[in-house]
């Protein structure tokens, strides 16, 4: 039996855009995991990765198995239709049974200096940074559901999670002007829960690899 989320993705979402779901040609890319810790990464043949190879570390501390849905792949199924327009986050994680929690997860790999707004040295162009971009991805993904109906309101806990794996080979010269200046913000930067919710009362969370996020 499909979860309530899979039912929504196969029935409600495509129907809203007058698209017919075809079981013969369309498939939702997903994997299931029981209780415990696991790592995920986008752009790979498998969603769940061996320890040490992921970008987002998730700990399912409930007795109910969860499914990890490749949401970007799902939206791309509707390419060239209104259902496939706009930004989309990488994954959605939810329990197979019940409505205890749902997590929209955007993943990125980046050097630390590009997470927050920065200026391109050669051109002077100001960039918004990976964090702001991720928030937009997450918010737009959530809004896609609410364009259809209030299905997500059924979940007790609603989270928008930004997972980042830093790729710095060595500390950035600006950040490493002193050891104290480098280490102090690193601790703050690694584990953030926003004080204000995002759209539709989703709570924004941030995890820097390899800190885990505990769901449900």
Overview of the structural elements:
With 216 residues, the chain is of the alpha+beta class. It has helices at residues 4-16, 71-76, 130-146, 179-190, and strands at 30-33, 36-40, 48-49, 56-60, 66-70, 91-95, 101-110, 118-119, 126-127, 157-166, 191-193, 203-208, 212-215. Residues 172-188 have low confidence and may be disordered. The chain has one domain (4-215). The chain is built from four helices and 13 strands. The strands form three sheets. Strands 1-5-6-7-10-12-11 form a seven-stranded mixed sheet. It has a four-stranded mixed sheet with strand order 3-2-4-13, with no helix packed on it. Strands 8-9 form a two-stranded antiparallel sheet. It starts with a helix and ends with a strand.
Count of alpha and pi helical runs? 4
Quick check: average pLDDT?
88
The backbone outline, from C-alpha atoms, is: globular
Helix content: 10-25%
First-residue to last-residue Cα separation: 21 Å
Low-confidence stretches: 172-188
Estimate what percentage of residues fall within beta strands: 25-35%
Q: What is the rounded Rg?
A: 18 Å
Number of distinct beta strands = 13
Domains (count): 1
Question: Helices and strands, in N-to-C order?
Answer: HEEEEEHEEEEHEHEEE
* Main sheet overview: 7 strands, mixed
Which structural class matches the secondary elements? alpha+beta
Main sheet: strand order: 1-5-6-7-10-12-11
């Amino acid at each position: 039996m499909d979860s309530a989320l899979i039912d929504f993705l196969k029935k409600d979402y495509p129907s809203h855009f007058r698209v017919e779901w075809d079981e013969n040609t369309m498939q939702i890319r997903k994997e299931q995991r029981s209780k415990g810790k696991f790592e995920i990464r986008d752009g790979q043949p498998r969603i769940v990765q061996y320890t040490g190879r992921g970008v987002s570390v998730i700990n399912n501390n409930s007795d109910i198995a969860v499914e990890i849905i490749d949401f970007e792949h799902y939206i791309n199924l509707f390419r060239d239709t209104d259902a496939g327009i706009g930004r989309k986050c990488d994954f959605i994680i939810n329990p197979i049974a019940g409505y205890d929690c749902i997590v929209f997860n955007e993943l990125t790999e980046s050097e630390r200096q590009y997470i927050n707004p920065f200026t391109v040295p050669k051109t002077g162009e100001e960039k918004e940074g990976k964090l702001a971009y991720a928030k937009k991805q997450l918010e737009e993904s959530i809004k896609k559901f609410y364009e259809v109906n209030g299905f997500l309101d059924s979940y007790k806990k609603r989270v928008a999670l930004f997972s980042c794996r830093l790729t710095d080979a060595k500390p950035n010269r600006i950040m490493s002007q002193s050891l104290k200046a480098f280490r102090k913000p690193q601790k703050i930067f690694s584990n953030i829960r926003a004080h204000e919710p995002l759209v539709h009362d989703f709570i924004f969370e941030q995890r820097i690899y390899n800190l885990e996020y505990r769901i449900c």
